[in-house]
Amino acid sequence: MFGFSIQKLLVLVAILAAVWYGFKLIGRLDQARKAETRVRDGGKSSRPAWWPGGGGSGGGAAGEKAQVEVEDMVQCPTCQAYVPARGAKACDRPGCPYG
Q1: The pLDDT of residue 58
Q2: Angle subtended at Cα 2 by Cα 14 and Cα 23, rounded to the nearest 5 degrees
Q3: Strands, DSSP E only, in 1-99?
Q4: Cβ–Cβ contacts within 10 Å for residue 44, how many?
Q5: Among 74, 69, 67, which Cα is nearest to 96's?
């Protein structure tokens, strides 16, 4: 019933090879599609629109993309916490330079 023959083994190897190379081809096509998208979008991230800084118009008013602002931080000499360089508020400790 479960006899092994050379023909059955060759067919099994051929099927496994076809599946293996099929997955490799699909992976290469996906990489090529992503590379083409990156080139077309000018090197922008291929993240979803809902992801911060992602592509698309999700989350912004009238298709505007969210701008992430970077703010410089300085260490408070009194409490050793990092506070914004501009507009820092007092930490309510004696000798706080931001009070």
Answers
A1: 46
A2: 25
A3: 73-75, 82-84
A4: 13
A5: 74
Question: Per residue in 44-56, pLDDT tens?
Answer: 655 666 666 555 5
Contact 83, 71 (CB under 8 A): no
Q: Confirm whether pTM is higher than 0.85.
A: no
Q: Find tokens 């592509």 and name the residue.
A: 55
Q: Which two tokens stand for residue 23?
A: 């997955």
For β-strands 82-84 and 73-75, DSSP reports them as: antiparallel
List pLDDT tens digits, range 3-33.
788 999 999 999 999 999 999 999 999 999 9
Give the structural domain span for 30. 1-46
User: Is 23 part of a structural domain of the chain?
Assistant: yes
Residues 39 and 2 in one domain: yes
Q: Which residue has 């922008």 as its token pair?
A: 44
State both tokens at 92. Answer: 């309510």
Q: Which two tokens stand for residue 60?
A: 């912004």
